[in-house]
């Protein structure tokens, strides 16, 4: 008789976000090159765009640590939070999820603060400013003339490396054949790689076994369901944002 199934607990894990942990490849090389050029940017702002899980937050942390830039979250950006910037005078500021700013006048104020003292604004977003519903012509024109660097979907080698990194972040050692098996079967996106590793980790905990190729094969139906659910959630979010 087999033993009782283990309850998969949602254990917290901390991703490795140091500069040495960032995986540079063809799809993100242009974005990395722009950050390496700082402060030699042609405009006060630079926007880096890419899908969920592409490594934008990781890059933002690296840039912030190198430059001393504070990080603001777009959807929580408020004018009161910008007051310390006038006195502290940082050389750069990072705005994560810049396409989610609730009031464009606040972003315009932030831009002007930095531009007025030859500082820089690094914006992370899922889409380019040309697609944002900006209702301030002056802000729109400034962001449209600033450079935009895109992080592209991962190729085979990068996707395998991202999968290996997510396993490593969870403290899980897996054989290369597991990573290779997954890399050619999952959706080619950073978000899918992160989600797949989470599903496999939960599945392994539930059955009380280490992660092997047979276990991954057994988890495939669950991976398919998770992918369908995630795709449906993404489509729902896109419909909501378009309105």
Protein architecture, described:
Helix 6 crosses helix 8 and helix 8 crosses helix 10. The protein is built from ten helices and five strands; from the N terminus they run αβαβαβαβαβααααα. The longest helix is centred in the last third of the chain and has 23 residues, at 220-242. The chain has helices at residues 29-37, 56-67, 79-88, 104-116, 137-145, 156-169, 176-183, 190-207, 213-218, 220-242; strands spanning 45-49, 71-73, 92-96, 120-125, 148-150. The chain folds into two domains: 28-150, P-loop containing nucleotide triphosphate hydrolases (Rossmann fold, 3-Layer(aba) Sandwich), CATH 3.40.50; 156-242, Orthogonal Bundle (Helicase, Ruva Protein, domain 3). It is α/β, with parallel strands linked by helices. Strands 2-3-4-1-5 form a five-stranded parallel beta sheet, with helices on both faces. The model is unreliable at 1-17 (pLDDT under 50).
């Amino acid at each position: 008789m087999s033993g009782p199934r283990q309850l998969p607990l949602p254990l917290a894990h901390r991703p490795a976000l140091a500069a040495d942990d960032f995986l540079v490849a063809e799809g993100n090389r242009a974005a990395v090159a722009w950050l390496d050029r700082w402060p030699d940017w042609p405009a006060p702002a630079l926007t880096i765009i890419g899908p969920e899980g592409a490594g934008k937050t990781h890059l933002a942390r690296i840039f912030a640590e190198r430059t001393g830039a504070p990080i603001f979250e777009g959807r929580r950006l408020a004018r009161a939070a910008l007051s310390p910037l006038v006195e502290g005078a940082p050389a750069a500021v990072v705005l994560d999820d810049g396409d989610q700013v609730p009031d464009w006048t606040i972003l315009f104020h932030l831009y002007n603060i930095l531009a007025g003292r030859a500082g820089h604004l690094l914006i992370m977003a899922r889409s380019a400013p040309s697609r944002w519903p900006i209702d301030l012509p002056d802000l729109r024109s400034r962001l449209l003339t600033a450079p935009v660097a895109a992080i592209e979907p991962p190729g085979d080698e990068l996707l395998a490396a991202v999968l290996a990194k997510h396993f490593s972040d969870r403290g899980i050692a897996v054989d290369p054949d597991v990573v290779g098996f997954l890399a050619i079967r999952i959706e080619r996106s950073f978000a899918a790689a992160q989600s797949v590793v989470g599903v496999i980790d939960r599945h392994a905990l539930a059955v009380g076994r280490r992660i092997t190729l047979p276990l991954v094969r057994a988890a495939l139906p669950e991976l398919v369901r998770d992918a369908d659910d995630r795709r449906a959630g993404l489509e729902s979010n896109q419909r909501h944002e378009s309105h």
